[in-house]
Design a protein that fits this description.
By secondary structure, the protein is of the alpha+beta class. The chain has 10 helices and 16 strands.
């Protein structure tokens, strides 16, 4: 419809325009009350609208970063819980190691058993003296070393110990066996017919230090081979006074045990021996802190010998039990380190965590908290003894220091993330408040505006009605 199709009086047109403006204001006020905002579009206030939009966009960005900060805090917290648990495990391991220092380990290493059911003994080399034709002036002299010599003279008190003048092999043998110096030097003698056999305990003896006069002759008698046991560089010969230190002819387990335990060289190397409590023909040989194998003992045999060597497994001991406990605790360190991750990120497995802030970022460096990387190795106390235990105690202390240092570093990173998270919350509130100040409507003011506009609308309607009365007066002229 054309605006010229209907003619309105100037009063009516003025009132109509006023009413239309009031309706527009009323609609705007209703919209502000409905949305709570005085600026809803760029048309309402371009400057305030775009400023508020910029503030809200920044607040939204910070809010998304704040969420990642929260997850980063959980990741660091998980690592801290893992460090606390691993520290507890290491303290427990230290307690076990301290107990191990005074634990019994008797029988705690692999040993070797020697079966001595049948032993072929050896006879050391010796010397024979043949008394062909002996006169009273004949002598036999033995050089004992160190300038000491014992001389036996025929038909004298030294030779004829029975006080007779009889010069015989039997009397010479008796004289040798009765002489204190000869006995102390280990000499023994026996006689058969006109022959005297002279031996020296535990050694191969030759005629080199025997001097005789007259028709007395001396000859060397070669040694007779027997069984040997070579251990720690020491060869122990049956029949040489090694198996049998008591001087008898017995070659049994007890004699070999006594020989091994009294041998200084073997003691220095840590070897020791006992008779098997269940079989007195067996010798159990062990070495301090070392698993002894059969190939470390060499057996020399004579025909008919049945000496055999077999392995004896280590017995369960107080120390071996503590070692097993220690290694079980150690394995839990690896398990705890592996379980300390959060959402696929594990700071105790060398993972790094990058935490982004507005305009910057923080890298939280992880580390490996496995037992091996902390320097805690599997215990070998059963064979290593107190030296190995002391080394493990030092390693545990170093591991605690490493955990403490890394825990301090993580705590510092956690503090930074927490501060930035609090800052982000405050910044979001600040930006949101600033945006609201630009766009939010004052509901009290808009409510008052609504009442005023409703009143104005009523008045405008009344005024428009009054403006139309002039035309109605003309109509009455035609009635």
């Amino acid at each position: 419809m054309s605006i010229n199709d209907i003619s309105l009086t100037s009063g009516m047109r003025s009132n109509l325009l006023s009413l239309q403006q009031t309706v527009d204001l009323l609609n705007r006020t209703q919209n502000r009350l409905a949305t709570g905002k005085k600026v809803n579009t760029a048309i309402d206030n371009p400057v305030s609208f775009f400023s508020a939009q910029s503030l809200n966009s920044r607040a939204s960005k910070i809010d998304s970063l704040k969420d990642s900060m929260g997850q980063a805090i959980q990741t660091v917290t998980a690592a801290d819980k893992g460090i606390t648990a691993i520290t507890s495990m290491i303290e427990q391991a230290k307690g076990i190691a301290q107990s191990a220092l005074s634990a019994d380990n008797t029988g705690g290493t692999d040993r070797v058993a020697l079966d001595l059911t049948t032993v072929a003994t050896a006879t050391p080399a010796n010397v024979t003296l043949t008394l062909n034709t002996v006169v009273a002036t004949n002598t036999v002299a033995f050089d004992l070393g160190g300038g000491s010599t014992v001389t036996f003279t025929a038909n004298s008190a030294e030779w004829a110990v029975g006080g007779t003048d009889t010069i015989t092999a039997t009397n010479l043998a008796s004289a040798i066996n009765s002489d204190t110096s000869m006995r102390d030097a280990g000499y023994t003698a026996s006689s058969a017919g006109a022959v005297v056999t002279v031996s020296k305990n535990g050694v191969d003896y030759t005629k080199d230090n025997i001097t005789s006069s007259g028709t007395i002759t001396s000859a060397n008698v070669a040694a007779v081979a027997g069984d040997t046991v070579t251990i720690g560089g020491q060869t122990l010969k049956a029949g040489y006074g090694f198996f049998d230190v008591s001087g008898t002819d017995a070659e049994d387990a007890a004699a070999l045990v006594e020989t091994i335990n009294s041998n200084t060289a073997l003691q220095t190397q840590g070897f020791s021996a006992t008779v098997d409590e269940n079989d007195d023909t067996k010798v159990i040989i062990s070495k301090d802190g070392v698993d002894l194998e059969t190939n470390q003992i060499t057996l020399g045999f004579k025909a008919g010998s049945t000496i055999t060597a077999s392995s004896v497994a280590a017995e369960e001991t107080e120390l071996s039990n503590l070692q097993d406990q220690y290694n079980a605790v150690r394995s839990q360190i690896d398990a705890l380190a592996g379980d300390s991750g959060y959402k696929g990120k594990n700071l105790l497995d060398n993972d790094d965590l990058i935490v982004k802030f507005e305009g910057s970022s923080l890298t939280v460096e992880g580390f490996s908290a496995t037992a091996a990387d902390l320097g805690v190795t599997a215990a070998a106390w059963r064979t290593g003894g107190s030296t190995a235990i002391d080394a493990d105690l030092l390693a545990l202390d170093d591991a605690l220091d490493t955990l403490s240092q890394n825990s301090s570093t993580l705590s510092g990173s956690l503090s930074i993330i927490t501060v930035r998270q609090d800052f982000s919350n405050n910044m979001i509130n600040t930006l949101t408040e600033g945006s609201d100040k630009l766009t939010l409507a004052d509901t009290n003011e808009e409510g008052a505006n609504m009442l005023m506009l409703q009143t104005r609308q009523s008045l405008a309607t009344t005024a428009l009605s009054l403006s139309s009365q002039a035309a109605q007066s003309v109509l009455r002229l035609f009635q």
